[in-house]
Amino acid sequence: GENVEQHPSTLSVQEGDSAVIKCTYSDSASNYFPWYKQELGKGPQLIIDIRSNVGEKKDQRIAVTLNKTAKHFSLHITETQPEDSAVYFCAADHNNNDMRFGAGTRLTVKP
Amino acid sequence: DTAVSQTPKYLVTQMGNDKSIKCEQNLGHDTMYWYKQDSKKFLKIMFSYNNKELIINETVPNRFSPKSPDKAHLNLHINSLELGDSAVYFCASSQKVANEQFFGPGTRLTVL
Prior knowledge:
The structure holds two protein chains of two kinds. Helices cover about 0% and strands about 60% of the residues of chain A. Chain A is mainly β. In chain A, strands 2, 4, 5, 9, 10 and 11 form a six-stranded mixed sheet that branches. In chain A, strands 1-3-8-7-6 form a five-stranded antiparallel sheet, with no helix packed on it. Chain A starts with a strand and ends with a strand. By secondary structure, chain B is an all-beta fold. Chain B is built from no helices and eleven strands. In chain B, strands 2, 4, 5, 6, 9, 10 and 11 form a seven-stranded mixed sheet that branches. The relative contact order of chain B is 0.34. Chains A and B meet through strand 4, strand 5, strand 9 and strand 10 of A and strand 5 of B.
């Protein structure tokens, strides 16, 4: 089955610096790769997603890159702010039945 | 207006009891899910329902049973609760499987 691995598990950066979170997946049939942000006490919320027909997508300070050959995708956050502090999850679709999530990255942005 | 709602938000109960968590979505989505999030924040898919039919059932004990009275609702029933069932349970919905999922606020279950 699909196995999604996510690194690092924790990440601490200074305000204004960039943050990068990386994920790998095992199912070559996966085509949809979303990223979710989970704030304390809340459910995960989609921040950006990418499909396999593109290699990069950007939305203001966040961007996602996808390398289908290597089966990895990354989240890039530039000019980080304290409110970016949260747990971030990558995910990949599996067998057209469900999404498999990575283990999460706890990002802390220090002011 | 809340897109995906869950009740209750908190549930504290004794081992061996039977409990239910309710979920409703008003987005008109075809697919609904239940996830379990443990203390380490790992999100594990438990069930998903597509047009009222169960399409996956991960290695979840049969003490857990999803029930969907209609497309907008997916309730989770848990029998004979165990200590290890303590976690936050999230309901989610999406238009199709490989689409954005909208998560509910979560139900924190504590089994004593």
